[in-house]
Amino acid sequence: MKRSHVLILTALLLTPLASLRAADTPQPATALAVVNGDFSDLSGLSQGQDGWHGGLPSGWQGSDSTYAVHATRGATAPTCNPSTLGFFRQRVGTLARDSDLVLRFDVSEPWRPDVVLTATVFDGHFVPLASGDFQPAAGQRLVARGVPAGTSVVIAFQAARGVPGLDNVSLEVVSLDVPAAASAALPPASPPAPAITVACYYFGNPNVTMGWDSSPRAHQDDEFGNFGYPFMNTISGNTPERFQEALIMAKRRLLAKPGGPRILNINCWNEWTEGSYLEPDIVHGMKYLEAILSL
């Protein structure tokens, strides 16, 4: 069973430490622009079977996958498959003026029906500025209002249900210096994500994971495909020290949200078969639990 590996950190599926540190670093104002928003740039991807291209789309960050972009499926192919790409995101620049942001994108169901895509606009500290769940439709819009100058902006997508297609991602910046009539033409501001009262995988609240490898649940001679559990990417490279650092970063992100909710999900207590457990073992003893206690 072939598998893809990604490194551990935080915010949904854990992302490399260097990426989040870079996003935390103040950046000079730059024009905001989405790179490869139509996923037509297939350079750097490996051509697979049945129209699939594997890897990570140019301009984007996340977890590479064998089933990243399909060359012929979707209304305006190529179409991206974010369900396999982990914390799929792009830093699009830094605002020069106080502005409203309008994120536009197409959601489709080129592979299976009944899909939902979560879209989020973050600041550079991965505090959500706007977030929402979207059904299949062209020209979906997510609005973040009143974003201050100097804000580093990150856009991100996650498959909330099924295997949605993503295409034609763009970002419009409407300066708050523009006349009121122009500002009034914007779509209504997207409502904030609902408060989450149970721990779950959701952009609104961070998840710090112990790692994940569900391959023992499959026969090792099985073909690896986009079939769902246990045919999934793995999260490896975890240590108690890296786990503690991820907890510290997640705590900092939550404390930056004075309105809450301040909820942190840790995955997982005792998923031993998937290599995701906090319980003491003979290798690390109590160190993972001590990392939590240290906060």
Task: Give a short synopsis of this structure.
With 295 residues, the protein is mainly β. 12% of the residues lie in helices and 31% in strands.
SSE arrangement:
Layout: E1 5-6, H1 17-24, E2 46-47, E3 52-55, E4 65-70, E5 79-80, E6 88-94, E7 99-108, E8 116-123, E9 128-134, E10 137-147, E11 152-161, E12 165-175, H2 180-184, E13 207-209, E14 234-235, H3 240-255, E15 265-267, E16 270-271, E17 276-277, H4 287-293
Parallel strand pairs: 1-14, 13-15
Antiparallel strand pairs: 2-3, 3-4, 4-5, 6-11, 7-10, 7-12, 8-9, 8-11, 16-17
Helix pairs in contact: 3-4
User: Strand order, biggest sheet?
Assistant: 2-3-4-5
How much of the polypeptide forms β-strand, as a percent range?
Answer: 25-35%
What is the helix tally? 4
Distance between the termini: 38 Å
Number of separate strands: 17
The rough form would be described as flat
Rg: 19 Å
Mean pLDDT rating: 79
Percentage of residues in helical conformation: 10-25%
Low-pLDDT segments: 1-27, 192-203
The helix/strand series, from N terminus to C terminus, equals EHEEEEEEEEEEEHEEHEEEH
